[in-house]
Design a protein that fits this description.
By secondary structure, the protein is of the alpha+beta class. The chain has six helices and six strands, in the order H-E-E-E-H-H-H-E-E-E-H-H. The chain is globular. The termini are far apart. The model is unreliable at 6-16 and 188-193 (pLDDT under 50).
């Protein structure tokens, strides 16, 4: 009456990948932390959400809330946009249908930009008063394995100021993590910004 499927093995493989990713990414982000004043995190795709595996609080008085294990919509957060942008057009349209959200037609050109420039921004789309920039982390097969991002409040930051600092730091950290995961493409995929 019962038979064993491959689902438990697939789940275990993902858990191992997440542990390996954490082992590689945590020291890189810890080293970056003193240079970044705002909230910083590492997120992976979990179904139709971005799941934060690491989260570092802001050092500022007014802070962006977040937590390890937090799950957020892909299309409204910069890390989620990075993860969603690397899907095919058909997969992006299907995602928006599952969310019962309009916006696939608007997001498709944004996805092209995200892939070309190597980063995504959230300009108060997730929440009023919060801006974010995120970059992809690639695995050995040059697939997007995760996204690292920084969020700030508009009291201190703008989407444009995040591009001056800390975006270059994020880009270097993502390239370092990607290389440790086996990606050999280098920084070329992280845009010119």
């Amino acid at each position: 009456k019962y038979r064993l499927t491959l689902k438990p093995f697939a789940l275990m493989a993902n858990a191992v990948d997440d542990r390996a990713l954490l082992k590689i990414a945590a020291p890189v982000l810890e080293q970056l932390r003193p240079q970044v004043q705002d909230a910083m995190y590492l997120g992976v795709r979990s179904d139709d959400r971005v799941l934060y595996l690491l989260h570092y609080d802001s050092c500022r008085e007014v802070r962006v809330g977040g937590r390890v294990g937090g799950r957020y919509a892909l299309h409204t957060s910069a890390p989620g946009k990075v993860l969603l942008a690397h899907d095919s057009d058909a997969e992006i349209r299907a995602y928006f249908q599952r969310q019962s959200a309009s916006g696939a037609d608007a997001f498709l050109p944004e996805a092209v930009r995200i892939r070309a420039q190597g980063y995504a921004q959230d300009r108060e789309e997730f929440c009023r008063g919060i801006v974010c920039v995120a970059v992809p982390v690639y695995d050995a097969q040059h697939r997007v394995a995760a996204a690292i991002g920084v969020s700030g409040v508009t009291l201190y930051d703008t989407a444009d100021s995040l591009m001056q600092h800390p975006y270059p730091l994020l880009r270097r950290a993502a390239a370092q993590i990607s290389a440790s995961l086996g990606d050999r493409t280098g920084e070329i995929d992280y845009g010119k910004g």
